[in-house]
Amino acid sequence: MATPELISPRSPRVAAAKRLARRNFRTKERRFIAEGPQAVREAAEHRGTDGATLIELFATVEAADRYAEIVRAAEDAGARVHLASDEVLAEISQTVTPQGLVGVCRFLDSSFEEILAARPRLVAVLAHVRDPGNAGTVLRCADAAGADAVVLTDASVDLYNPKSVRASVGSLYHLPVAVGVPVERAVAGLREAGVRILAADGAGTDDLDAELDAGTMGGPTAWVFGNEAWGLPEETRALADAVVRVPIHGKAESLNLATAAAVCLYGSARAQRAPGGCRSVTPS
Predict the structure, then answer these.
(1) Which of 14, 73, 94, 232 has its CA 20 to 30 A from that of 121?
(2) CB of 272 within 8 A of CB of 279?
(3) Of 178, 173, 131, 169, nearest to 150 (Cα)?
(4) Most distant CA pair in the chain: distance in Å?
């Protein structure tokens, strides 16, 4: 069995990776941490404008043996691979039970202008989302619903927070994401691109079921999602073409952010794929 080359948590390579847990270092170096086999595999396969997304991989001897195909993919991507002790992985990892693989990755966000130029038909705008787990989960929902892009405003959490990256379960690598866009600019740019702006809010005057029944959701749409606790402020709601609530048919008081986002995005995805929707439908 191979011997770990990195055994000291005080190694300069370990220290450089560990400091990426802090937002200011991530922003300065435009690098972030991806943990676990799924995230590292996706990173090794992803290519951005600057080349391979995965730059460096730390793996325990056991994990390198168990996930040998991921290690090979990392090497093929040009990443520097380090065999490390369990203590080193625990030092870098942001999880309670590390899975033995930690990757250092390049930032992969897109510019807002690139997203607009692609003429998106379904977009999730995270306007005031502060919880990193929710941000990553909404990104995953948008990916699953076939959204064309996600936009995080300057009032939302850092996309590259380790919790956001983990919660996205790889979706971070699947669709364009713009970060730090002021909500006014996001709304204005999308509207100019022909996208209808819907604000998701439990106190909305319009009902999602009614919108679907009326056939008004088949065109390009951007959903604006707000804060987990207090929703969207009035000034943000006022920017939208409509403020839409998800109907509560049972006795639940409300839905959490990620669940509401999934319902809204899938509602749009279904409407857009129906006859007359903005996405082509292939006859069976």
Answers:
(1) 232
(2) yes
(3) 178
(4) 65
> Per the structure block, which two tokens stand in for 131?
């919880």
Residues 6+ apart with CB under 8 A from 92: 14, 17, 18, 33, 58, 102
- Distance (Å, whole) CA 254 – CA 194: 31
Using CA atoms of 238, 187, 197, 171 in order, give the dihedral in degrees to the nearest 10.
-130
pLDDT in tens, 95-127: 888 899 999 999 999 999 999 999 999 999 999
Determine the Cα–Cα distance for residues 131 and 135; give it in Å rounded to an integer: 6
SS3 83: strand
Lowest mean pLDDT among 8-17, 119-128, 162-171: 8-17
Q: What is the pLDDT of residues 172-219, one digit of tens each?
A: 999 999 999 999 999 999 999 999 999 999 889 999 999 999 999 999
Using alpha carbons, list the distances in angstroms from residue 226 to 43, 78, 127, 139, 208: 29, 39, 5, 14, 17
Helices 68-76 & 36-45 angle (0-180, nearest 10): 30
Phi, psi (degrees; rounded to nearest 5) at 112: -60, -35
DSSP 87-108: HHHHHH--SSS--SEEEEEE--
- Check: pTM over 0.85? Answer yes or no: yes
Distance CA 89, CA 98 (A): 7
- The per-residue pLDDT for 284 is 39
Structure tokens at 103: 């990757």
Residue entry with tokens 């930690």: 102
Alpha-carbon distance of 155 to 186, in angstroms, equals: 12
**Plot region of 110 (φ>0 → left; ψ -120 to 50 → alpha; else → beta):** beta
